């Protein structure tokens, strides 16, 4: 590590470990609100980010880290602050800072064949740059590598990890199994922090937000409509996951809907595509290439609502069903059926997946996915690379593959 | 009826109690040609070899296959196989990654589902199945307990577990004191060859692989005949068995640590397959927690790196000798 990076790292660590300094951000938030009383969508997002940073690092309430498919409604209901390391790593990569934690994790025996979201999360934790967790909660749904990741975090932060084991099928026994695990975790957390479980408000906010997301989906179904630039919607993942069930998420999606409704001539591109999995978050040419070849992303798999409305009178059962429903993204017959429905509803011409190098569950399904969708008449482009680790990025290869796919669609 | 399985969390007693023959799947051939179109490059080598073997070798004579495991590769192997061979009867057994009362209950329920599926094939009643299972558990308990005690006291080195040898070797080998005792941690692949190679290098090897310790050793196994047979079986495999990488890392560490201290293990050779997340996390964990030298050796599907492995093993031997 060179001197400049090392100094920057020491400074970052110094600030990250001083809770009181982050309280000062409240002044900046107040100033932002005064300066932008009617914030635009990017301003709204920026203000929410600053507020979240202040809350997380000043540790104003207990901080709960969780894996992507652990329902954040649970965390909001117990009155804690949710932190999703897999999502935040996307932000770290977007800032061009992911190499340091990745390298540091590798030096500590975390192989570069492991998922880079997890590897970088381990690196950031080893550096102690992420906000200190009070609890670690994870599910084994979708990806079982998550279990290894969270067990590693537990060793680094020296706190226990509560892991929810998730079966593949939604059976009464499976629901009962998951709901009992959730109930045990609640008892453990309640014994350590003074929390009053507020399911009513949290679930109501979550359900109301989902209704707005559905309104946005209705807009996106229009033939001449697409969110610009392509894949931009994936930058809003925190609002689909981390903030869901809080006023912040509802507020954001209201603004987002308003913003989309105001757009004039939102799309001039000609090929409508469904986007699977996530995307590379480090600075890259993907968006420029998609625009160059007239590709629009009309729907994104990870922004999809895969669960039924939550019921406050049966909180654990409801959350258990949400957790098991996330398997819709990994059980092939369910996943492929959902994608085919989107292709039809969103009038898509094809499907793109940007493969994540260390993701066994998605890559292991590539054959079935491609084969089935192509048989139904939807061309599939599987791009190879990594979402966080730029080592696996090749712009020329990306261009060649997108160009070839464009020819297929044109043909 | 021959029932194939490969995960050490799948109790063979279930299969036997359905009057079927358990066949632990491991391929002699390292070919992957037929599996390559279906599985991506960065993917578990064992899954590729196994899929190839299931697709290519018509002489396996399996009437039923049980898939299972706590990893994404195991699940995807099942997904691909049922899509390619929809007529082959098979079952996916969910193995909980956590070990507590809830998971034990669910695992027992899953074992019951598996048994019912096998029973419907065999035309055996549930009553007969439970009776069979009781008899098998009586017998199995004695074997498991004796074998575990012998292994954990260091009396079953080399390939004893692999070939289910009952003869204790400590009294037969007069050169033991001059050899360095090491623990081999490995998956299903190359275990026999690696043990042989390490023994040629004058190591006294203890087999901690998926086909050895992880499959056969049940520390603290208990048996109360009055308990329901399926409850007993669920407890044996989910709680009493040596955990595989990814399952209960703390308990796995405790068992390994105890074994290392008791037998006087001087080093660990960790022979792990490329792209195996479970092993990769386990390796990073053990590397930090275990205080004796650990040699990580990565392999893919071929035996072609043997020269490189030998060089590294020689260097490791020198490190251990110099201590």
TrEMBL record, chain A:
Its EC number is 4.2.1.-. It is an enzyme of class 4 (lyase). InterPro entries: FldB/FldC_alpha/beta. Belongs to the FldB/FldC dehydratase alpha/beta subunit family. This is R-phenyllactate dehydratase subunit alpha. Keywords: Lyase. It comes from Candidatus Atribacter allofermentans. It comes from the Bacteria. Transmembrane segments: none annotated. GO terms for molecular function: lyase activity. Pfam families: HGD-D. The keyword Cytoplasm does not apply. The keyword Ribosomal protein does not apply.
């Amino acid at each position: 590590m060179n001197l400049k990076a090392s100094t920057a790292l020491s400074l970052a660590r110094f600030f990250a470990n001083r809770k009181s300094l982050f309280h000062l951000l409240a002044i900046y938030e107040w100033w932002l609100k005064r300066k932008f009383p009617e914030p635009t969508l990017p301003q709204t997002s920026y203000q929410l980010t600053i507020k979240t940073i202040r809350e997380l690092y000043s540790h104003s309430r207990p901080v709960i880290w969780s894996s992507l498919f652990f329902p954040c409604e649970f965390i909001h209901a117990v009155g804690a602050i949710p932190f999703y390391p897999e999502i935040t790593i996307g932000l770290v990569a977007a800032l061009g800072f992911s190499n340091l934690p990745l390298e540091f994790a590798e030096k500590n025996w975390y192989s570069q064949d492991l998922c880079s979201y997890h590897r970088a999360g381990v690196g950031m934790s080893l550096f102690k740059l992420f906000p200190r967790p009070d609890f670690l909660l994870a599910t084994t749904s979708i990806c079982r590598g998550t279990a290894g990741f969270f067990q590693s975090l537990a060793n680094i932060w020296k706190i226990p990890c509560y892991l929810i084991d998730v079966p593949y099928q939604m059976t009464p026994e499976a629901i009962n199994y998951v709901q009992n695990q959730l109930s045990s975790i609640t008892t453990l957390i309640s014994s350590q922090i003074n929390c009053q479980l507020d399911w009513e408000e949290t679930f109501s906010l979550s359900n109301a937000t989902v209704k707005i997301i559905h309104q946005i989906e209705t807009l996106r179904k229009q033939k001449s409509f697409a969110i610009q630039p392509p894949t931009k919607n994936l930058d809003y993942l925190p609002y689909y996951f981390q903030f869901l069930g809080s006023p912040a998420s509802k507020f954001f999606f209201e603004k987002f809907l308003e913003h989309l409704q105001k757009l004039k001539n939102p799309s001039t591109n000609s090929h409508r595509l469904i986007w699977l999995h996530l995307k590379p978050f480090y600075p890259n040419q993907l968006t420029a290439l998609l625009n160059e070849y007239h590709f629009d992303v009309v729907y994104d798999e990870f922004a999809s609502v895969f669960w039924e409305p939550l019921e406050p009178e049966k909180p654990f059962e409801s959350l258990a069903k949400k957790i098991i429903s996330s398997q819709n993204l990994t059980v092939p017959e369910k996943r492929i059926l959902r994608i085919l429905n989107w292709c039809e509803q969103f009038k898509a011409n094809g499907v793109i997946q940007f493969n994540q190098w260390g993701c066994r569950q998605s890559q292991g399904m590539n054959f079935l996915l491609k084969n089935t969708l192509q048989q139904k008449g939807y061309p599939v482009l599987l791009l190879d690379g990594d979402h966080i680790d730029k080592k696996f990025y090749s712009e020329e290869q990306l261009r060649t593959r997108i160009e070839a796919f464009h020819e297929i669609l044109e043909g | 009826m021959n029932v194939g399985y490969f995960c050490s969390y799948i109790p063979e007693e279930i299969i036997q109690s359905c009057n079927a023959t358990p066949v632990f799947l491991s391929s002699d051939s390292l070919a992957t040609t037929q599996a390559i179109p279906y599985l991506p490059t960065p993917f578990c080598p064992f899954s590729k070899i196994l899929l190839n073997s299931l697709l290519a070798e018509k002489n396996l004579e399996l009437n039923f296959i049980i898939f299972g495991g706590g990893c994404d590769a195991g699940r995807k192997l099942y997904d691909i196989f049922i899509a390619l061979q929809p007529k082959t009867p098979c079952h996916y057994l969910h193995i909980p990654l956590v070990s507590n009362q809830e998971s034990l209950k669910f695992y027992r329920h899953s074992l019951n589902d598996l048994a019912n599926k096998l029973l419907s094939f065999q035309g055996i009643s549930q009553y007969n199945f439970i009776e069979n299972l009781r008899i098998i558990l009586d017998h199995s308990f004695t074997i498991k307990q004796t074998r575990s005690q012998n292994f954990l006291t260091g009396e079953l080195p080399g390939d004893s577990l692999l070939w289910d040898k009952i003869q204790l070797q400590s009294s037969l080998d007069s050169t033991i004191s001059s050899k360095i005792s090491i623990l081999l941690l490995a998956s299903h692949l190359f275990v026999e060859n690696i043990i042989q190679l390490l023994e040629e290098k004058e190591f006294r090897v203890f087999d901690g692989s998926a086909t050895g310790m992880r499959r056969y050793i049940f520390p603290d196994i208990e048996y109360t005949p009055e308990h329901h047979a399926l409850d007993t079986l669920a407890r044996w495999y989910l709680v009493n068995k040596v955990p595989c990488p990814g399952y209960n890392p703390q308990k796995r560490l405790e068992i390994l640590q105890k074994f290392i201290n008791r037998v006087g293990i001087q080093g660990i050779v960790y022979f792990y397959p490329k792209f195996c997340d479970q092993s990769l996390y386990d390796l990073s964990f053990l590397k930090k927690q275990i205080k004796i030298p650990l040699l990580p050796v990565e392999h893919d599907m071929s035996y072609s790196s043997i020269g490189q492995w030998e060089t590294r093993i020689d260097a490791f031997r020198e490190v251990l000798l110099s201590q």
